[in-house]
User: Fold these one by one.
Assistant:
Number 1:
Amino acid sequence: MGVLDRFRLDGKVALVTGGTKGLGRAMAEALASAGATVALTGRDASKAEAAAREVAGLEGTKTLGIGADVARDAEVKAMVAKVLDTYDRLDILVNNAGINIRRPIQQLEESEFDQVIATNLKGPWLCCRAAAEPMRRQKWGRVINVSSTLGEVGLADRTPYCSSKGGLTLMTRTLALEWAKEGINVNALCPGPFATEINKPLLEDPAMREAMQAKVPQGRWADPVELGPVAVFLASEASSFVTGATILVDGGYTAQ
């Protein structure tokens, strides 16, 4: 097998949560481009199905759109069951679904903190638990937990988000240890400032946009397509000896 062949995903089935837009959509397209069959999810089933058709049109691969809320155990189990019923396997899980609520702690409601933790931390935990059995049965699996640079460093007015992403990074390391001998690699992919919808409030405010950009040594916001190749690496045989790692894609943001 040649070096580039190790990045191919032919015959593999990937599930990308929060895959209808932003980083999830970019990673779904990249995985499909590398040969994977891709199932992508969103809370709105019609949007997930439309996104799946678009990815299929771009890459010419099999796709499946599923409506699911990753914070609800029954919906997560049904989501994984649908993938298995359709394709009879699940090789790659990308836990990408996430939300952010930005305000000082004294201005946040308890329910808002709970909402962020439920989606960003409990959701990946539920998805990992549901995906464990098929991956263990195959003795091969790749789990990519999309954490954040804000799981490594703090930022004011982000207590729910930073707490959730810091927890997700440590959960990644713990699961990597649990599954190390089962053929399942678990890694955290940590994007920095990317120009996506979740960052729309910052991007639309010139002062905030420039302030964030100034903190990035490369001096710019990233394009979502820049995350796709890193996801392909972590999903493929090219990362066979990489598990429990935290991969930062942040233009040098956390190197300071």
Number 2:
Amino acid sequence: MAKILMVVGSQRANGFQAQLANEISKIIGDRAEVSFLDYSEVPFVNMDIEFPAPASVAAAREAFEQADGVWFVAPVYNDTFSPQVKNLLDWISRPVVANERPTAVSNGVKITFSSASAGTSYEHMFADVVRLAKFISMDVMDEPLFGHSLTSEWATGEVTLSDDERAAIEAQVSAFLAKISE
């Protein structure tokens, strides 16, 4: 069975991204084993602590290596992706062995993105994060991506998906599972 690592790009407990990631996981159902990455202890990238990598970084790298695919559910911060996502991708793209770039865990990782954000601001974020993921040699599934426009959720704190949105997530799930099996 395929293994999908879900990465929630916000540390907010039960935030919109976490809720969306849980909905995606439910739609995946028994077609793949889904796990969620806890990277709350990953420090800011710092070459002074890179070798040996902190235990939290080593654990995140191991989770990426064990997954058949990684699904980021990322918020939009100031018209781009969150600093948490950037920092994690920076660590994942750094060499595991000093001065040996081919040892970076990011190389060839199959990845996709979704987001819940204001309006369609996720479109700019997707463009930025997809560009970065490709730059660090990830195998990006950039079509279809799912973005949910937050509306009443700002008042309720609860993500509500329409039937059409669930169908769009289903299309992304099916496409990503096909990519993983390539």
Number 3:
Amino acid sequence: MPKIGTECVPGAPLIAADDALLLNLLALPTAGPLEGEPSGQVRLWEAQRAYAQAARAVGFAVEWHGTADPGDVTDDQVPASVRAAMARDPEFLKVQPSLVLRLGPQLPPESTVMFNVHMDTVAGRQPVRLEDDRFFGRGAIDAKGPAVALLAGIRSAAAADPRIGSTIGVLIQVVSGEEGGAMGVFGTRSLIEKGYTGRINIFCEPTRGRLLTRSTASMTARIAVDGADSIDDAPAAGHNASVLLGHLAGHLATTLPQYAGSGQVCVAGLETGPLHNKVYGTGQLMLNLSYGSAAEGMALERAMHDELKAGLARFRATFSGNKLLGLTAADAALITRLDWLKRGLPTLDAHDAWAEHLLTGTAGLPCWPTNEPAFTCDAIWAGDLPGGFTAVLGPGDLRRNNAHAEDEFADRAELESFAGAVTRVLTAFAAAEPPSAAAEDI
């Protein structure tokens, strides 16, 4: 298979055991309940145990394997969908564990590199196969393939430098709760709070082998209309939520992007009802708004409130004399409300001259272009670690490799290239002087 762009770099080979591990992981359904999977069918425990068993052959030991405490998943940063799922299903957290693996003795963070990879996937099963050095299956690129390549890269690094696993520690976080809108609140966030971090922290997501030091966060707004229904024989007698929400969707799609800065505006689902002979007075419109900094997030939140108000005013002015929509126009502001299902999440914007020189200079990782938008991932929870540097790095491309879509795949060449990048990161870290010592020599 052809190699992609910046991924044409020396790699570390995947062996037969790696192939078998990846095919096994791809065959296990690990989409969580937020993706619509019944709790009884989620096999994350089994997948993580299989991964831990393979990691033991590299020298890793299980440091921790368990689930988040329900009491730690109730604060304002927890998305409403997670809180609702926990209230609805007592098994929700029990089937979504996370795993921590450690190579070598317990060392301080300044002597440790941490890698984070998620084992949960989006919903949707597809045939699993290895064909012409291309792995097919849900999670092939996001992120079971990177998880297996990570082990191959660490194995190669430990063979090249005996300090790795002795005086240099390696942690792997294998998490759940990355997909489904959970935003890592019961996976990655919990492990970060437990202190499983390093001097360098790499989150394994598809970046085409480029080092990404930014990650957006997102907030979810719900605009709900709670009016009165009417029948098709008297359509003006009720409130038409379909027209009102459609108008607001168009208004917000036109006006909000100017406030998004480094983020994105996604005008998403609109729901009122399916029948042709009824005017629906209730419904909802969903928007997902991403942002690159706390300041941008606050500005976008204010803009959401202001533009909703402006959109309602415009609707009233446009339809106040309309025979069918006059009542809806008169009551629009009274029957419309804005709820936030998710907001207040942190972002990542990492700057560390020593770590960046090690990764891009010594290890030779290409940088993510400054003019290319970042994306949202669990790295947001490691953005403010004292004395730590966090970045995103992984094989493949979310679009090209059909992540979250049919026929998701990962090429052996891109997985091996990522494994090689992991090897270079670890050997460069093992050979580097600590930043304090380097500064004293200047």
